[in-house]
Design a protein that fits this description.
Blueprint (H helix, E strand, L loop, with lengths): L1 H13 L11 H35 L2 H12 L6 H20 L16 H27 L4 H20 L14 H26 L4 H8 L2 H13 L5 H18 L2
Helix pairs in contact: 1-6, 1-7, 2-5, 2-6, 2-9, 3-4, 3-5, 3-8, 4-10, 6-7
């Protein structure tokens, strides 16, 4: 997070993005970073370590219907009948993929569940909710003309600060279990650059121009994209339930997008 913060801060400074930030919007943007980045991303990675990338990605996709509902109540973004049906299909796809998403012959370590399945599912749903809430809190500033890269830098900076504070808490829960080296640092930096630097900035660019439900639904395509990637990396074909759940997510996404 700290690496990405400096990347985004430098990028915003090169073309005057910081001048677009209204000081009155800073509290909401900071809260967006605290909920969406610090809590949401911490829950996302905690769920990843417990459930693996397939289950975790599918759970995280619930941020789409959640964002659509929150946008309706807090941003007056009207949900059409098709959008409601789409949200229901996405949610059904998530449930289907979790319950029937693993074949009996899948033995790759990424398919293992570490710890309580119920707790892992709860963490994944929390990550999706925090992502949706963080987007809702940031959108008014984006609509007012705030630069998305500068907004992303603020949110990531708050998240990085909170994570550093969390590291100071006594105990082993937040302590690193692997010693940092140059190779690991490079992978972490690349992951942050792609996921937070590019991905989150593009998400905010879209939020400034389209309704929250549509944008978050498009971003929820991650479970669909991760299935063929995992198939290639693990050499294990996704289970029929996972494929059916992905199809429902795609159909639901299409219905929401076409509204």
């Amino acid at each position: 997070m700290a690496v990405v913060f400096f990347m985004l801060s430098f990028a915003a400074a090169t073309y005057g993005g910081w001048q677009t930030i209204n000081p009155d919007d800073l509290p909401m943007l900071a809260l967006s970073g605290f909920i969406g980045i610090f809590i949401g991303d911490t829950a996302l990675f905690a769920g990843l370590s417990r459930l693996g990338p397939r289950r975790n990605s599918i759970l995280f996709s619930t941020n789409a219907p959640l964002a659509a509902v929150l946008g309706y109540f807090f941003l007056d973004e009207i949900l059409s009948f098709d959008a409601i049906i789409g949200c229901a299909l996405v949610t059904s796809g998530v449930i289907l993929s979790i319950i029937f998403g693993k074949r009996r012959d899948q033995v790759h370590q990424w398919e293992e569940v570490h710890g309580s399945l119920i707790f892992g599912v709860g963490i994944g749903l929390l990550a999706g909710l925090c992502q949706a809430v963080g987007a809702i809190l940031a959108k008014p500033a984006l609509i007012a003309g705030a630069d998305p890269i500068a907004v992303s830098a603020i949110r990531v900076g708050v998240g990085a600060f909170c994570l550093v504070v969390a590291l100071l808490v006594p105990g082993q829960t937040m302590k690193a279990k692997t010693k940092m080296n140059l190779k690991l640092f490079g992978r972490v930096a690349l992951s942050g650059f792609l996921g937070m630097g590019i991905g989150m900035s593009l998400l905010l660019f879209a939020l400034a121009r389209e309704s929250t439900g549509i944008v978050m639904t498009l971003s929820s395509m991650m479970p669909v994209l991760v299935l063929p990637i995992l198939w290639y990396l693990t050499r294990e074909r996704p289970a029929t339930g996972a494929a059916m759940g992905a199809v429902l997510c795609v159909i639901g996404t299409g219905l929401i997008f076409l509204t």
